[in-house]
Amino acid sequence: MYSRFSSGARAFDRDQIAFTGLPGVVRDFEANLELTYVAQIIPGLTMQPVLTYVWHPSGDASRNATVTGFRSIWLY
Question: In this predicted structure, what is the pLDDT of residue 76?
């Protein structure tokens, strides 16, 4: 998934940095890649590990993030 911040949002960030004098970042984009697999353990029980890598979370070019998760579904 790829999302780009609007030119208005980027202009607001530049103005806020210029007017306040405080350090900040100008948001640019956020992209992520998710890897997942669903395994059926027994009928009615599935396990799903998830690994997600996020480039520029919240549009901050100075950071990247790795997110992990795990989901299980038990149908009875």
Answer: 86
